[in-house]
């Protein structure tokens, strides 16, 4: 297996806090010779063994009593020779052992550099590397489960299957390039177009699942909007189970944006409570209103609150007009239903219309179900995938290229040109999985990892 970088890298791989044990990870060609210099236990070192001994400084003074595990290329996380020092988990101890490792010839690893090497050495593809980051940053068990499946290669094999389908069509096309005079093919034009449509649909589903993957891993932003006193802050408190926002019967209570986190079935949500939207001459409230309009822009889902126990007012109608032109999913909520329902629902042209009482909590379960459905779009967990922006971009280009190919084949253009488009299509898919990469993209990708990963 090729070793892409000659240096030996080292980092603390465990958390920067006092703990029972802390691990220093070291990787790169020649690292086992480095170990020999600083470890009281001398070689031979066998792969996948744990050795007891002491790390000493140049004068032979003990820096820590440790256990060292040995990995030999290519059978390690990075694919290189590597070892891990299990130290006592104090930051001072860990730092002195790390400094000793660097004194002996290693350099400090950059964030994600171990995983980058694993990728460059073919131990992981790019979608698996992305999954490693998500396994670590996931905020719920559900998100971890989804990331684990991707780490095991589920997504990679799905793309492989699609690639197989394309290769079959490419081979058929090659025959036509080589034998332009004869009609050797038993695959009809309709069948080819059907197969490409099928591929395109699969790619579209993956893209859609990746959008929802963002929701599961990064969270969903909700904005609460509505005229003063309808119960926006009450809803924030109800849904988060807190007393975070101040609730009074005085309209205009909330002036700045209040933000709070909660989760539904393992999907993280942030909810932004904003100032009630109305015409106002109060400077502070005006700024608040401006911010609430901005919150609508930032939100993934807008919760528009109305007082269901009264008729719609001019302010409500203005808000409805404003929201009608928004492309975002909007849930209209008729609050204060414990006081009876007087509002005319015909004037609320929203796909989701729910009744609620923040006072009794009635209707909350339905709201949570609706939020959960919109957040994950009904996509099954087994289909959800986490892709970064540039992977999604490549996927979009692949989807466009399918469109192009359908036209190519329908118009019976020169097979040599069709071949070029097929190549472009497989290249775009290779970018998603990381068979084709560029240095900038890898930089962006691995920078978000922690040190030592
Ligand atoms: N101490 C420690 N714990 C850890 C890791 C680690 O690197 N070190 N991991 C890392 O982040 C995760 C485990 N992932 C790993 C993945 C591959 C290999 C590895 O050595 N693979 C070899 C041998 C496989 C085998 O024996 O079957 C290989 O792929 O060839 C090690 C850990 C989580 N826990
Ligand atoms: N009866 C009843 N009263 C409610 C309900 N929800 C909220 N209220 C009351 O309505 C008043 C206003 O509630 P808030 O949550 O402060 O309203 P808001 O929309 O945040 O108001 P601003 O911050 O001023 O824009 C308070 O007196 C609440 O107790 C409800 O479901 N039923
Ligand atoms: Mg409020």
TrEMBL record:
Transmembrane segments: none
GO molecular function: GTP binding; GTPase activity; identical protein binding; metal ion binding
Annotated CDD domains: trmE, TrmE_N
Cofactor note: Binds 1 potassium ion per subunit.
Sites where the protein binds K(+): 229, 248, 250, 253
Localization annotation: Cytoplasm
Domain TrmE-type G: 219-376
Gene3D superfamilies linked to this entry: P-loop containing nucleotide triphosphate hydrolases (3.40.50.300), Probable tRNA modification gtpase trme, domain 1 (3.30.1360.120), tRNA modification GTPase MnmE domain 2 (1.20.120.430)
Pfam families: MMR_HSR1, MnmE_helical, TrmE_N
Record-listed E.C. numbers: 3.6.-.-
Keywords: Cytoplasm, GTP-binding, Hydrolase, Magnesium, Metal-binding, Nucleotide-binding, Potassium, tRNA processing
Residues that, per the record, bind GTP: 229-234, 248-254, 273-276
One GO biological process term: tRNA methylation
InterPro entries recorded: G_TrmE (IPR031168), GTP-bd (IPR006073), GTP-bd_TrmE_N (IPR018948), GTPase_MnmE (IPR004520), MnmE_dom2 (IPR027368), MnmE_helical (IPR025867), P-loop_NTPase (IPR027417), Small_GTP-bd (IPR005225)
Any single GO CC term annotated in Swiss-Prot or TrEMBL for this entry: cytosol
Primary subcellular site in the record, as a coarse category: cytoplasm
Residues involved in (6S)-5-formyl-5,6,7,8-tetrahydrofolate binding: 25, 84, 123, 453
Cofactor(s) for this UniProt protein: K(+)
Binding site for Mg(2+): 233, 254
HAMAP family membership: GTPase_MnmE (MF_00379)
Oligomer status and interactors: Homodimer. Heterotetramer of two MnmE and two MnmG subunits.
Family: Belongs to the TRAFAC class TrmE-Era-EngA-EngB-Septin-like GTPase superfamily. TrmE GTPase family.
Function: Exhibits a very high intrinsic GTPase hydrolysis rate. Involved in the addition of a carboxymethylaminomethyl (cmnm) group at the wobble position (U34) of certain tRNAs, forming tRNA-cmnm(5)s(2)U34.
UniProt name for this protein: tRNA modification GTPase MnmE
Organism per entry: Hippea maritima (strain ATCC 700847 / DSM 10411 / MH2)
Lineage: Bacteria, Pseudomonadati, Campylobacterota, Desulfurellia, Desulfurellales
């Amino acid at each position: 297996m090729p070793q892409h970088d000659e240096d030996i890298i080292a980092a603390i791989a465990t958390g920067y806090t006092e703990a029972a044990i802390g691990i220093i990870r070291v990787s790169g060609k020649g690292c086992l010779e480095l170990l020999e210099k600083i470890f009281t236990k001398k070689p031979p070192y066998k792969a996948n063994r744990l050795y007891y001994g002491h790390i000493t400084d140049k004068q032979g003074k003990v820096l820590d009593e440790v256990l060292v595990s040995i990995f030999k290329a290519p059978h390690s996380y990075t694919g290189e020779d590597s070892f891990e020092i299990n130290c006592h988990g104090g930051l001072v101890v860990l730092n002195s052992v790390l400094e000793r490792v660097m004194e002996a010839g290693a350099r400090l690893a950059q964030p994600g550099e171990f995983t980058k090497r694993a990728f460059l050495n073919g131990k992981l593809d790019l979608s698996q590397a992305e999954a490693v980051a998500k396994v670590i940053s996931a905020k719920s068990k559900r998100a971890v489960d989804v990331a684990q499946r991707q780490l095991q290669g589920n997504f990679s094999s799905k793309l492989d299957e699609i690639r197989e389908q394309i290769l079959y069509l490419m081979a058929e096309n090659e025959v036509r390039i080589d034998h332009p005079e004869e009609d050797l093919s038993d695959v009809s034009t309709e069948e080819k177009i059907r197969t490409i449509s099928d591929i395109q649909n699969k790619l579209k589903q993956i893209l859609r699942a990746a959008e929802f993957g963002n929701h599961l891993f990064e969270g969903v932003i909700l904005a609460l909007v509505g005229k003063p006193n309808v119960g926006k802050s009450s809803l924030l408190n109800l849904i988060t189970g807190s007393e975070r926002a101040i609730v009074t019967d005085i309209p205009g209570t909330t002036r700045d944006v209040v933000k709070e986190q909660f989760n539904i079935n393992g999907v993280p949500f942030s909810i932004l409570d904003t100032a009630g939207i109305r015409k106002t001459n109060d400077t502070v409230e005006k700024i608040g209103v401006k911010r609430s309009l901005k919150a609508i822009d930032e939100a993934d889902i807008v919760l528009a609150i109305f007082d269901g126990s009264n008729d719609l007012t001019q302010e409500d109608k203005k808000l409805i007009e404003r929201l009608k032109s928004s492309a975002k999913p909007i849930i209209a909520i008729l609050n204060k239903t414990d006081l009876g329902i007087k509002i005319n629902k015909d004037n609320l042209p929203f796909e989701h219309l729910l009744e609620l009482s923040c006072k009794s909590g009635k209707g909350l379960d339905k709201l949570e179900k609706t939020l959960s459905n919109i957040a994950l779009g009904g996509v099954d967990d087994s289909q959800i995938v986490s892709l970064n922006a540039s992977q999604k971009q490549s996927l979009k280009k692949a989807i466009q290229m399918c469109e192009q190919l359908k036209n190519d084949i329908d118009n019976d253009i020169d097979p040599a040109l069709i071949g070029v488009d097929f190549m472009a299509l497989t290249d775009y898919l290779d970018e998603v999985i990381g068979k084709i990469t560029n240095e900038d993209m890898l930089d962006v990708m691995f920078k978000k990892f922690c040190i030592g990963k």
